């Protein structure tokens, strides 16, 4: 009825006014009068090959030339130009690409350098002085482009910073002396393994020779995998996110003074979330056991005074760490061969 009314009003007024009077959408009216044609059905028969297409013989010949030793490392455009200079035209550059694509050869066909897979470091510690992790981080100096290098050795079980040093540079000699000083500070006790990333100082021959002489296993992170050295990376983040950490250090003495104060605090006062909120020093020297017992007594007393505040559940002091690792070792499947 509405469409009929629009048709009757159309000779006397514009289409827009007629549609407004009867409440009809002008766009809908146009779509009804001029419907969009449905897309044509796809052809059932394949497209016939054009008469100028290469014959099967020509395709085989061109593919053989593209795969010849002289052209194996050249792009189709290079092959086309060389053949043209030699007075031969076997097809266009597009034809060569089309032929190679059909054969699955549109890729870099040159010999590519391959790198063997890196071994995933897997280290496990269930006590202090078993696995140490060390790294070097940059501290901004007084001027642009001036940096100091902070060396830190950590025990991954206790998170204790075993030793730290700040120098004006990073090199193999300083790294070797640093590790020697750590062992001296620790009463001559060596860990089972020392882990580090692949910096030039960490992979240097003096460091490797020192650890070999001490019968300490040397472990390295995989290239570009920072997660392989998580404890040192996390410790450096704690350092640099400290509210007192300056944007720049005025001198080497300033950097050493600040790092001494921070790392003493880190070892003796910082309650580390990764080790049950105990200090790294207490976990390393074993006093965390008595600290946990004291915490439990305080919690037991608080529970006895107001059990409803704990919803009837006995509170427990955070547990002490038992095992830590760098990349949790995968379970080893031992096959027993029947005799």
Structural class: alpha/beta
Uncertain segments of ≥5 residues (pLDDT<50)? 334-339
Helical run tally: 12
- Element order, helices and strands? HHHHHHEEEEHEHEHHHHE
> What is the straight-line distance between the termini?
96 Å
Oligomeric state: single chain
Q: Work out the radius of gyration.
A: 38 Å
Keywords:
339 residues, alpha/beta, Nucleotidyltransferase, domain 5, 5-stranded mixed beta sheet, two-stranded antiparallel ribbon, 12 helices, disordered C terminus
Provide an overview of this structure.
The protein is α/β, with parallel strands linked by helices and 339 residues long. It is 38% helix and 12% strand. The protein is built from 12 helices and 7 strands. The protein has helices spanning 2-9, 15-22, 26-33, 56-66, 76-85, 93-102, 172-185, 205-213, 230-240, 252-268, 280-285, 288-305; strands at residues 123-125, 131-140, 147-155, 161-167, 193-196, 217-220, 324-326. A 5-stranded mixed sheet has the order 4-3-2-5-6, with helices on both faces. The chain is flat.
């Amino acid at each position: 009825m509405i469409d009929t009314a629009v048709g009757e009003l159309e000779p006397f007024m514009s289409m827009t006014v007629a549609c407004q009077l009867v409440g009809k959408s002008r766009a809908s009216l146009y779509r009804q009068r001029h419907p969009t044609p449905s897309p044509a059905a796809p052809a059932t028969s394949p497209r016939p090959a054009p008469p100028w297409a290469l014959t099967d013989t020509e395709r085989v010949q061109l593919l053989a030339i593209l795969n010849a030793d002289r052209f194996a490392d050249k792009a189709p455009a290079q092959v086309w130009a060389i053949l043209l200079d030699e007075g031969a035209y076997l097809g266009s550059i597009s034809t060569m690409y089309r032929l190679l694509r059909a054969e699955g050869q549109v890729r870099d066909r040159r010999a590519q350098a391959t790198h063997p897979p890196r071994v995933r470091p897997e280290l496990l510690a269930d006590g202090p002085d078993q696995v140490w992790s060390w790294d070097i981080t940059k501290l901004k100096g007084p001027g642009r482009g001036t940096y100091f290098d902070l060396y830190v050795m950590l025990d991954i079980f206790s998170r204790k910073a075993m030793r730290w040093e700040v120098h004006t540079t990073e090199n193999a000699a300083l790294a070797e002396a640093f590790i020697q000083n750590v062992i001296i500070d620790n009463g001559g006790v060596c860990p089972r393994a020392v882990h580090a990333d692949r910096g030039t100082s960490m992979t240097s021959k003096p460091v490797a020779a020192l650890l070999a002489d001490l019968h300490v296993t040397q472990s390295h992170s995989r290239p570009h995998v920072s997660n392989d050295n998580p404890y040192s990376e996390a410790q450096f983040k704690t350092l640099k996110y400290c509210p007192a950490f300056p944007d720049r250090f005025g001198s080497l003495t300033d950097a050493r003074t600040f790092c001494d104060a921070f790392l003493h605090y880190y070892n003796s006062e910082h309650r580390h979330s990764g080790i049950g909120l105990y200090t790294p020093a207490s976990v390393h020297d074993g006093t965390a056991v008595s600290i946990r017992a004291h915490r439990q007594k305080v919690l037991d007393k608080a529970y006895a005074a107001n059990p409803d505040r704990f919803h009837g559940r006995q509170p427990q002091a955070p547990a002490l760490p038992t095992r830590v690792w760098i990349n949790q070792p995968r379970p080893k499947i031992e096959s027993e061969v029947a005799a």
